[in-house]
Amino acid sequence: MNSLARSLLFIGLLAAAAKAQTPFPFKAPFAVKDAVIYDQDGRKVKLWGVNYLAPFNHNFANIQQSGADLKTAIDTDIAHFKLMNIDFIRVHLYDREITDNRGNLIDNAHLQAFDYLVEQAYQNGIFMMLTPTVWWNTVENEKRMSDGYAYWDLSQNRDFGFSNYFAKDALLWHPEAIACQQRYLRGLFHHVNAFSHKRLCDYPHIVTIELTNEPQYINEARIDSEPPMGSAVWATGEQPKYLKPLYEAFAEKWKADNRRSDATRKEILPFFKAEILRRYFAALWPVVDEAFPRGVVKSHIEYEVQNPAIADALKCGGVQAVNVVAYWNATGKFDGGNTDWNNFLNDASAWLAHHQSQRFDGLAKIVYEFGASSSLDGYVAGAFAADFRRADIQMAAFFTYTPSAVAPYNPGWLIHYLNIEHTPNKAAAFAAAGEIFRGEIGSDALARGSDEWTGPTFDIRNKPSNVTFYDKADGRVFRYAATTDLKVVDPSRLALISGRGTSCAVSCDGTGSYYLRKESPTQWRLWLFSNQKYVNDPAGAKTFRNMANRYMNIDTLPVVSRLLEQPIHFSFKLGKVVQCERLKGAAAPVLKPDGELALLAGEYRLTVER
User: Fold this and answer.
1) What residues pair up with 589 in beta bridges, in sequence order?
2) At what angle do helices 57-66 and 70-83 cross, to 10 degrees?
3) Tell me, what's the pLDDT at 148?
4) Is this prediction's pTM over 0.85?
5) Has residue 592 got a pLDDT over 60?
């Protein structure tokens, strides 16, 4: 092969690689300046996303139960994320499933599934926020304990992770727990991906790291009651205590420094919590910096950040963003049984007022989890998006996306249900809400009524549930969650349409959603989803006082949502369809002389008259 031929081949391979790699909406790594997250081009970052946990805990177990191939399940969901224009996914890794009792990383099926997810997110232009430690127990733990007659055989199952040996609050202060986390983070960040053969820390789409999920701060009682943890669990004889001596040394110095010899433990405790956080950050952020010299956004939970001592510990400890939670619960707690009798626009107004009364000086803001428990109405996503824009949240992740492989059952976090096929109104609204979130809403631009919120580019209605987005100035994107009478100014400029029901662009009698992307002046790609109906209450009519590990055995459960393989009548109003090519689907399309279509769910290419 001559040099010219080699050069042309190399150029061709580069072109193919570039075509395979979906571009990202922002240029990483991100940087935080004056409490604002910017990309490398100086653009203010706005990412709309979901929590997604297919590689771990009950999602993993349920997908296995379903008989689905895990990689295929992840591929399906990633493809759906692209249709919904999801910018990032947050993953809190279940450390108990992928580490041993000393924090060494264990290469197993969970880690390989995580590897696959990381690579597929990268290939599809989806950013990731990682929380390496979650602490919570897992389905696998419970099952193995049962199978092993109430004990764990470490010689048979090394992946009995370090968090099994520590109380949750001890992750922040126990020296052995800190050492385990250092060991774990180094192993995780430098782990070589089974599919790409790149280290995790070499992936540029890992843009945010939160060290631990929802940590627990100490209370007064803990200082006097430190149970055996870490190596003390299996050691004999009296074991050293760590927390009380640490507190006593700190209290003595604090009293002297502040000339408060009479200060009570209650008065000193907030400052001791702050000291614990400083020590924790000083031990673990350098591990992150070593692995990610290019930089990642470092985030931490909002707990007690209104206390100046805690806020100072975060900022001085290297934290750049605060993780805020937004859960709207119709009865004031995590609800069981459908809650769409409630007007969540009222909850949205209350949340925004409360949030705007809080201070997060010097810290960017991320909503790491949000959702309205046991609601199936999509308008709620629009209200969240509008709230977050007014609150200047820069990243927001719904909790949690239910993998399509098990979505008919809605197992696990059943009060949080989002899936493109099985919650069609919610999914179509979520896609429209993302457009709202990525825009700007001036202080006087959001009109909030009791049943409808409007802005310059959107309309949010609770009955019937709908979120409509169309920016007249841009004119390329039109999204809605139900039939809408909104008129598009210049239909020829449209390049992306998604929704349900009928609009000025589409007429569809199906109950599922559809997504259209313009490929050329005469061709559109159509993704059409099946008719769907609920056959049982997805929330299970149960109140969760103790949510345990949320495992539900789908072998013994009835489905809650059913897809109906029925012909759907579809009409494209932006031009007469003269050809319909089936790309994926169970049956050939039926094209009538007037351009109307009868279709089963699938993927199609529509050719229209000029």
Assistant:
1) none
2) 110
3) 65
4) yes
5) yes
